[in-house]
Amino acid sequence: MDTPNRTQKNLTLLVLAAGIGSRYGGIKQIDGFGPNGETIMDYSLFDAVRAGFTKVVFIVRDEILEVVKEKFEPKLKGKLQVEFVIQSLDKLIPKEYQNAERVKPYGTGHAVLCAREVINEPFVVINADDFYGKDSFASVANFFANETSGAHAMVGYTLKNVLSEHGSVSRGVGEKDDQGFLKSVVERTTIVKENGKIIAKEKDGDLELSPDAPTSMNFWGFHPSMFELSAKMFNEFLKNNHNNIKAEFYIPLIANEMIAKNQGKIKVLGGGNIWFGVTYKEDKEEVSSKIKALIAKGEYPEKLWV
Known about the structure:
Pfam families: NTP_transferase. The protein has about 300 residues and is α/β, with parallel strands linked by helices.
């Protein structure tokens, strides 16, 4: 493994691993995809270490806390400081807004807020079940090593490259300005390929999307200054949505508010050259094949943690 550049500022990786995986039909965060049973998270952690990250925070559900600890603590000892945070249905939810009928967590924005107590430095948010590639980690680490103005970041992926052949996907579809900063990002929860076009299924009807749109795969870089605005927004969200058991507080909602209120710029970074993920069980074989191909090219060792 490459030696991390410890001259960089402290940088934390926040791994969102509390999802239920209802469409996958299992706990995809800890399922094995590599030749020795490596999870997708293993590859992200490996890439983070070689990019110079100094800490990892796992956001998990209480039911999988012990298995995630058992799987990752021994591998990461001496490489990264490790923290675990529970995202529960009642964490940060005032009693008057708690809903006994709710079964799913409140989404990615809520997950980030759950980690507020253990993060005081710039941090990068990723999904546990997405494979982002080493360039994305190097890109965001370089951004924060040189960033002095307090800007945030999003690694941009090209929409046509981040769809599934096996069903609809949810993506944050973005637009950037001439300086490369994000103008807006919209969470499109049902994107499909139909008749050679990329279509978002919306309440108001079908919306055709540009295949080259910069897309969020939930690879964000934030300064901890974002927590204050996020907390205010989440309280407002709960006030308006506590009776809706399916409402989710997404990171793109925070990003848009930040931009709209001039409370932070978000640079769209390069480095999003490779992505694959698992939404459906049918994706597993393809993901494993792609990992094998990267190993054959020398991008990763056959055994990550030796």
